[in-house]
Specification:
Elements lengths: L21 E6 L11 E4 L5 E3 L5 E6 L4 E5 L6 E4 L15 E4 L2 E4 L6 H7 L6 E4 L2 E4 L8 E4 L10 H8 L4 E3 L14 E2 L5 E2 L1 H4 L10 E3 L13 E4 L2 E3 L11 E7 L2 H4 L10 E6 L27 H5 L4 H8 L3 H12 L6 H14 L3 H9 L9 H13 L3 H14 L4 H13 L3 H16 L10 H16 L21 E8 L5 E7 L5 E6 L1 H14 L3 E6 L6 E10 L6 E11 L5 E9 L5 E8 L3 E3 L2
Parallel strand pairs: 16-19
Antiparallel strand pairs: 1-4, 2-3, 2-5, 5-6, 7-8, 9-10, 11-18, 12-15, 13-14, 16-17, 18-19, 20-23, 20-25, 21-22, 21-24, 24-27, 25-26, 27-28
Length: 610
């Protein structure tokens, strides 16, 4: 009998496209005026130049090269060149930090003494065995919990982690029991068993309890987490610790924050500060954290944002008949014949507003050359098709992106989800197998910090809901599906352009908000990592503990060129259940530096655009 996992043997060799040198042009500014004499160099002994009096420059670089911008008094910038990179017009910012009304030039880092004095009043600080870590300035995202958020109902640290942190897998219980040796085995889609003992080989074998931060999924078998309790290192979970004695808890799940722990910290670190081990402080001070807040003022609705769209768009919206709309299109078509954004705008209008599928498709078909050699444009078009439930069209577009970007991790996830939308679940699973194979062969890079957890969640969700379409009934018993610890609303954001910079704002029903920043100024390392691995996505989970209306907003900063970026949001309602539903929304981002409403979620289920 032929098992479907023979697909792995049929995977062809990875063929990389020949890299052609890009001529990159742009203007460097400080956000207000051009900067002359900025040193622009290609790292590693490549070309170098300086910006002229108007801030303009031109330099040659290969895809994968890193272009560095340096100017005295400004923070240096490093931007990785991609296959489509032709224009880079970055804004440099002054390298200063404000400390108690004293401006210090050239440094924005606080000493350990400064952090120690601030520890009592700053709940975003955590004491580790190697010093105090600031969650607001540390590289990557650190998940935090303070004593006010910890309920005494949990028996031990295992219960707390299992119930309060989505995506963390906990093996064992507070009484000392571990997972069963059979059902607890980890297997991949090929049915090859891999025992828990392999995952625990770097740790002591005395206790059956283990915590996996980075996920022991069906794709990648990761190591168990390390525990740092008041500076003492424990390889086994401290189930003896009284939950009521925890003052702060932090989850370190990226290499940048765990590197000091060496090889032992490869599976991530759970840092715990207890009340007894934390310094006592005097009167708490109210520290207003304004640096991540949007300014006070109205949030632009989608209608207000669209009011700033180009003239052709306004005239199309104002047309009163199909004939008049066609006349408007033909009036501007020759002027914008080289603009993929004009093509996508007019396509969406005729398809969505006029219901004229034939004419809409004709617009795209006649401008196919704008998409066939540009993966950024093709991906935006795929987003639009997907939001319109044109799964066949979206699938063909994602296949084209895969052809152009076979070393990008995102290409495999997008194509897998596309196959899934078509009901071809075995082909979807094969994409995850193919990605796993290429990583194992070191043909494409691996990132377990940001991208793989999202990939793992998608893969396990596929196995949970669609395994009947993947493996035969006879082989289903040997298939391990990692238990989904989260049920609620899952939001997956994707953007077509790796240069896109923006802030996402999540406002809960109690009007409290969280901001996720995606910019060179806030997290340049993350953006560099995205380009190295080849992904542009982030997920957010909203459970049902706080019912009401949530608001999702965005502030767009641009993509270092004059072109817009496209943001896709996939909304999974009742995620992780048999009643799971999926909805896709696509937003064109062109208006800069304004807080814009994307959509609202009512009770974590109903989506409303306004």
């Amino acid at each position: 009998m032929k098992n479907f996992w023979i697909l792995l043997m049929l995977i062809g060799p990875l063929v990389g496209a020949q890299q052609n040198q890009n001529t990159i042009r742009g203007t460097v500014s400080d956000g207000r005026a051009p900067l002359p004499d900025v040193a622009v160099t290609v790292a590693g002994g490549g070309a170098s130049t300086f910006t002229d009096a108007s801030g303009a420059y031109s330099i040659a670089a290969l895809p994968g090269d890193v272009v560095r911008y340096t100017y005295q008094g400004m923070k240096p910038l490093r931007i990785r060149v991609e296959d489509v990179t032709r224009i880079l017009s970055p804004n440099m910012v002054i390298d200063v930090a404000e400390l108690e009304e004293v401006v210090v030039v050239g440094s924005n880092r606080k000493s350990q003494d400064d952090l120690a004095r601030e520890y009592v009043i700053n709940e975003r600080l955590i004491r580790t065995a190697y010093g105090i870590l600031n969650a607001d300035t540390a590289p990557g995202n650190i998940r935090f919990m303070n004593e006010d958020d910890i309920s005494p109902i949990y028996l031990c640290i295992l219960d707390l982690l299992r119930n309060r942190f989505a995506g963390i897998r906990v093996v064992g219980d507070c009484a000392g029991g571990g997972a069963q040796s059979t059902t607890g085995q980890l297997t991949n889609i090929q049915g090859v068993a891999q025992s828990d003992a392999d995952a625990f080989s770097e740790f002591s074998d005395l206790a059956p309890q283990r915590v996996f931060i980075r996920g022991t999924s069906s794709i990648f078998n990761q190591r168990a987490a390390l525990f740092d309790v008041d500076g003492q290192i424990f390889m086994d979970p401290p189930i003896w610790l009284d939950i009521n004695q925890i003052k702060r808890l932090a989850i370190l799940n990226n290499f940048a924050t765990t590197t000091q722990y060496g090889n032992m910290g490869a599976g991530g670190v759970v840092v715990i500060n207890t009340l007894a081990g934390s310094p006592k402080g005097g009167r708490l001070k109210d520290q207003a954290r304004l640096r991540n807040n949007f300014e006070t003022g109205p949030i632009l609705s989608r209608a207000e944002v669209e009011a700033g769209e180009p003239t052709y768009y306004q005239e199309l919206k104002a047309s009163t008949s199909a004939t008049e709309a066609v006349e408007v299109y033909e009036k501007y078509a020759s002027r914008y014949t080289s603009s993929p954004y004009f093509v996508m705008d007019t396509y969406r209008y005729f398809y969505e507003d006029r219901g004229d599928q034939a004419y809409a498709d004709q617009i795209v078909d006649s401008h196919e050359y704008l998409f066939s050699k540009n993966p950024v444009n093709m991906k935006a078009l795929a987003y639009i098709y997907e939001s319109q439930s044109r799964t066949d069209k979206a699938h063909e577009a994602y296949k084209e992106v895969m052809r152009m970007r076979p070393t990008y991790g995102q290409s495999y996830m997008d194509l897998a989800n596309s196959y899934r939308d078509l009901g071809r679940f075995d082909n979807a699973a094969a994409q995850y197998i193919r990605y796993d194979y290429l990583v194992e062969e070191n043909l494409i890079p691996l990132d377990t910090t940001d991208f793989v957890p999202i990939l793992n969640r998608d893969y396990n969700n596929l196995l949970f809901l669609n395994q009947a379409g993947i493996v035969s009934a006879a082989n289903r018993e040997s298939l391990y599906v990692e238990e989904e610890t989260f049920q609620g609303t899952r939001l997956v954001f994707e953007w077509n352009d790796g240069e896109a910079e923006f802030d996402l704002q999540f406002v809960n029903p109690e009007n409290q908000y969280h901001i996720w920043q995606h910019s060179l100024a806030s997290d340049a390392d993350r953006i560099m990592r995205e380009k190295e691995i080849g992904f542009n996505t982030e997920e957010f989970l909203i459970d049902s503990s706080l019912p009401g209306t949530w608001e999702m907003n965005v502030r767009y900063y641009g993509n270092k060129s004059l072109s817009p970026s496209y943001l896709k949001v996939t909304i999974y309602d009742n995620y992780g259940t048999r009643s799971q539903r999926k909805e896709v929304r696509v937003f064109k981002l062109s208006l800069k530096d304004a807080n814009q409403r994307l959509f609202t979620l009512t009770k974590g289920a109903t989506v409303a655009l306004n």
